[in-house]
Fold these 3 entries.
Entry 1:
Amino acid sequence: RTNKRGKNELSYGAPFHTQVAVLLRRTWRTIWREQILTTMRLTLHVCIAILIGLLYWQIGDDAHAIYNNASMLFFNHIFILYAAMMPTFLTFNLERKVLVREHLNRWYSLKAYYLAKTLADIPFQIFFPTVYLIPVYLMTNQPLCIERFFML
């Protein structure tokens, strides 16, 4: 369909907010049904936290270990970024055929799909890094200061 200016305009069966709400419900249902992925993510975060905590054991208060502290911070950032992206990479390929079919049928826009997937993953993107960082922070003997923990 074209608008008043002659440009092509996509129309969908429902308003954007309804598309997002339906996709969000479906995404939450999928996450709930496939608990093994969530359990694996949690287990991965805990195991890597213990390994990093042991690798950088008690370096937080040692001024001579500044390079070790910097490398620990760098590893934390890389791990959290990698751990956040991997579930998307793993599950997107499984959902791709359904996504293409439903989008080409104009059931929902790609923006609504992306927003719903992002919103559904936000609680996990807060919870899992927190579960990871608490033991790492304590095991590496970083100064017990809430501001420094939140900066980490």
Note: The chain has one domain: 16-151.
Entry 2:
Amino acid sequence: RLGVLHVGQRIEEQADFEKIYKNAWADNANACAKQYAGTGALKTDYTRQWGLIMDGWNSLIRYYKNNFSDGFRQDAIDLFLGNYSVDEVEPASPLHVKKDWKFLALPIIMVVAFSMCIICLLMAGDTWTETLAYVLFWGSASFGTFAIILYNGKDFVDAPKLVQKEKID
């Protein structure tokens, strides 16, 4: 009806058009997803060559952003929509929360311990008992710090800091 195809032509026979259409569709999906979730769209593996790899990468980035660095986004939305109103009498900002030492130290310790465990596996010592001892030490150190992070998980999450107004029914 729009005159894109001539009479008798079939969409399945137009490989160039199909490629352009699918790329435009994927580009639109990426733009919408970046606004909403902060990363490119998932499930673009049907239209892109590296789509499956990018899906995995975008999923990891989304998980990190949603849990550790997106609280400010919800705070900004709450301010913009009027779900939170600033109290001029209150001197302290609810956005400023002092972080404890564990927020920086524990992830660094876990990454270093896990890296050392992998290095000990790749660079074997003189004897297998020596290698096993190093791997067990660094493995238990990385597992221990991971367990501490999981136990204190709610403290590591970047939750919105502004309290929403009571909804009036």
Note: The chain has a mean pLDDT of 79.
Entry 3:
Amino acid sequence: MTQKDITFVADFLTEHFNEAPELYNRKGKYFNVERVGQYLKDEDDDLVSPPNTEGNQWFNFLKNSTHLKESPLLFPYYPEKSLHFVKRQMEGVIDQCLQKPADVIGKSVHQAVCMSLYKTSQSEDSTPQLFKLPFLWNDKTSNIHYVLFTILENSISKIYILRRHTDTSRSVSNGILAVDFGNFLNNSINESSDSRCYSCLDAHFYDDETVTVVLKESVEQEGKERVLAQLPLS
């Protein structure tokens, strides 16, 4: 160690570990602990060396503001407590804030309709993920909620569109339908090919009347393996 290192350690001990007679009756050690470490202790006891807030601009600002001084929107300050204590207090407040909305929303949700999309085997093997890429869209003009999705397995070239009215007491025609892409682009890309088939990689609503899809050619050829198409919902 260099002399500079020894001086640094000596200064540290001198500053932080002086005896403090006024703390003799306190629980635990009666010397000043290192001032950063005290904030990290997971204890409810008061800090041994609380910070000096004199001259702090934020506290002075709050003190001189009649509206903010007692505002319930400001999280209370605990100058005598560690960060662990404050963290627990804040978590409690957040949990309390979220509990009421969770109860209200939970009680308001109910099943409007049940639809069987596919069946899986009852074997003990893990069930494969067959439901893919659900995308939600709400048409506020006609009050209809849409869900776009694909089902992997036998219908890789199809995209399904589920429609429900936001008013669950009302129904809409064609509640669920499938769009089969298959070889519908053959005429525009290669008129002589009958074997080209397309599956859907992704699909999103572009607006209330248009769906954008990314199609993949089943037999990939360089430069022709992806197609971006916009389809009118009608």
Note: Residues 83-108 form the longest helix (26 residues).
